Amino acid sequence: MNLITFTWVFVGFCALCMGTKRYADRLPLSSPLKNSPGLRLSGWICLLVSVIFSITVNGAAIGITLWFGLASVAAGLVMLCLAYTPRWTPGVGALTGLVAVCGTAFTWLF
What we know:
The chain is mainly alpha-helical.
């Protein structure tokens, strides 16, 4: 369950970074997606979904504490990904998003 929370946080931070002007110039995205408010909004929605998922799975006290720890690790990995492989960041974020959606659907169905 914590892996699903981690993937939602990672996707949220990737979307937030791709939606800001500072990091969008480094990424090989097409021009309409660069510095897009939609990417920033989807990043915040992913972070909100990750907090809600963490709280429902682990309870309020442990869920919030665990979320902050996972958010710190995910932010560090996003920064490493942006620093060393900026071309891979959109692909890694999209693949991680697919894993997050499938994992969440699998968890809530079963």
